[in-house]
Amino acid sequence: xxxxxxxxxxxxxxxxxxxxxxxxxxxxxxxxxxxxxxxxxxxxxxxxxxxxxxxxxxxxxxxxxxxxxxxxxxxxxx
Length: 78
What we know:
- The protein is of the alpha+beta class.
- Helices cover about 45% and strands about 25% of the residues.
- Helix 1 crosses helix 2 (about 30-50).
- The longest helix is centred in the middle third of the chain and has 19 residues, at about 30-50.
- The model has no long low-confidence stretch (mean pLDDT about 95).
């Protein structure tokens, strides 16, 4: 069976990206103010890259196929 799921969560993508960026920036051992600025800049850049799959930064469409046991994230139409 093929099932399309359209999920909405306004904070999930941004929060996940921000956490990943924070982990990377911590490895640099920068002063707190520089680290904070870098986290903000890198988070926005990474979120822009992920916009390919997220509509408005919060909607994600996934096609599930229970026969082949696969899931595919749909690209958002621009």
